[in-house]
Amino acid sequence: MDWKGAAARTWQISVKTIRIFSEIDAEQRAAAFAYYAIFSLIPLLTLLLSVGSMFFASDQVKATIGDFIPPGSPGRDTLWQMVDALQQARGSVSLVSLVILTWSSLKFFQALVRAINRARHTQEHDWWQLPLKNLIMVGIISSGFALGILLPALIQGAARDLADYQRLTAEGKLGEAGQKLEALKQKLERLNSIRR
């Protein structure tokens, strides 16, 4: 094995990495990424709760989302207090959250795209082109995120209603079983509309 060649290659890669790191002002770019990610967290959770509450009970949606935040995380209780306060204001929360989330997501992507363009020495886009491209990226990521959370929740809810229907039918509680069957039909219709 050629140790001198490997050492020279490692040195070249290290020097190039440091040069690009300072050239794109990577510390500032990383700070911008962190700022916009944190800034969009509360509106994102509020938006997910608002949309999810249209399909399920608020407590069930909150528990599902809460599973993604580790129990011992610092600031978890503060985070949920802020989300609860926004949920109680509920009237225009969905619209406000959507606007704030979209704005902060666009800024996050704008910082990301500018850092990548600087690192690759490519041309900066006009002021109006970048937000349009970022909006498309946000749409793609949001739809994937929504499907990844909403679809499994709907399937789990339908499976739970089916199990309850079968249990109630076996116990002879046909009135309650009929209600569960209606709830199951509604969830299956929602799943079918998402599939289209």
Could you describe the 3D structure shown?
With 196 residues, the chain is an all-alpha fold. The protein folds into two domains: 1-124; 126-196, no CATH class. The chain contains eight helices and no strands. It starts with a helix and ends with a helix. The model has no long low-confidence stretch (mean pLDDT 75).
Which blocks of ≥5 consecutive residues have pLDDT under 50?
none
Fraction of residues in β-strands:
under 5%
Number of domains: 2
Determine the structural class based on helices, strands and strand pairing.
Answer: mainly alpha
Features:
196 residues; mainly alpha; 2 domains; 0% strand
Write the layout of secondary structure elements.
Blueprint (H helix, E strand, L loop, with lengths): L2 H21 L2 H14 L1 H12 L5 H9 L9 H14 L3 H28 L8 H42 L3 H22 L1
Helix pairs in contact: 2-6, 3-4, 3-5, 3-6, 6-7, 7-8
How is this structure best summarized?
By secondary structure, the protein is mostly helical. Helix content is 83%, strand content 0%. It has 8 helices and no strands.
